[in-house]
Amino acid sequence: MATGAPQSGLYRPCATILGWENAPKPLMLLIEAQTWLIQTLINAGIEPAEAEAESRWMLLETGLSAVQMRLNPDQPLSAASEKQLKQMLERRQKREPLQHILGHQPFWDLNLKVSPDVLIPRPETEELVELALAYLPTQGPVQIADMGTGSGAIALALAQTLQKRGQPAEIWASDLSEGALAVAQENAQRNQLEKRVLWLQGDGLTPFFKQALQLDLLVSNPPYIPLKDWQELAPEVKDFEPRLALTPGEDALLFYRLLASEGSHLLKAEAWLCVELDHGMAQATLALFQIPTWQNAALKKDLRGCWRFLCAQKSPSKHHSP
Ligand SMILES: C[S@@+](CC[C@H](N)C(=O)[O-])C[C@H]1O[C@@H](n2cnc3c(N)ncnc32)[C@H](O)[C@@H]1O
């Protein structure tokens, strides 16, 4: 007796008999795609709210508009869109950040290229830009420096805003990483701001001292995650973002010590420093600025209610005399 697969019509799947196997696969509906994306992302360990937001962003990347998505959830996706979503999802399931997959991130009124060379700019940093603008003179030419510029997010957001205001500004931005500076310069071009920022490579404040700057504002979002916390970071961060951008090593306060001890020499009298920091080390950072070269040092909360920023004013020069 034959033991192979049954060949008679009786045992063949009916789709074969009817020829349906060659029929085109029905196209996935938008609403089905949304459910598929969200569920796959959740299964990969992504928070439900984040999964929902990301599924929306992925669908927008296929060329759908927000209005189409809202008004016509039963529309079929094209085969090309479905393929594009599948490719994105495969990478995202491995916890690669969506911004790396798409290659860009909105920040302020900018569209920034992001790559593994730069920190993906975070929404809190937009609040730092807002804060910095509040401490900047609103009239006349201003000079600004951004230490550890990464993608150029802060420097370019300030440049864009001052350009829109018609306020003359000289802006310098530095980074130790040449790869980051290349991305920042590309971002300046992308956003038609290439003549607005001067990019300097070097360690800490050294590039600014070399230019003998006297600034109206010094701003920075330096690396501040202590190395001991590295393993607790999300896979998107620890496996894909540059370590140089995240951690200064064992001493989480390293860059704040530098800014507190040397930053005032780069500022005009009574000009301001604004920095981003971690909630957990806010008080320790504030303590570094309780020295005579600084006045009015204060912590500020972000929109989520966490201590996230510190602003300090350079004291008038008479306070420095021995
Ligand atoms: C937290 S990221 C901030 C990037 C960007 N400013 C932002 O807010 O999205 C810190 C940046 O500091 C840079 N950096 C690290 N060590 C540095 C050093 N010793 N001197 C200058 N920049 C440094 C990193 O390359 C990184 O781009």
TrEMBL record:
Substrate binds at residues 221-224. The keyword Transferase applies. S-adenosyl-L-methionine binds at residues 148-152, 175, 221. Keywords: Methyltransferase, S-adenosyl-L-methionine, Transferase. It catalyses: L-glutaminyl-[peptide chain release factor] + S-adenosyl-L-methionine = N(5)-methyl-L-glutaminyl-[peptide chain release factor] + S-adenosyl-L-homocysteine + H(+). Its EC number is 2.1.1.297. Coiled coil: none annotated. Residues 133-224 form the Methyltransferase small domain. It is an enzyme of class 2 (transferase). NCBIfam families: hemK_fam, RF_mod_PrmC. This is Release factor glutamine methyltransferase.
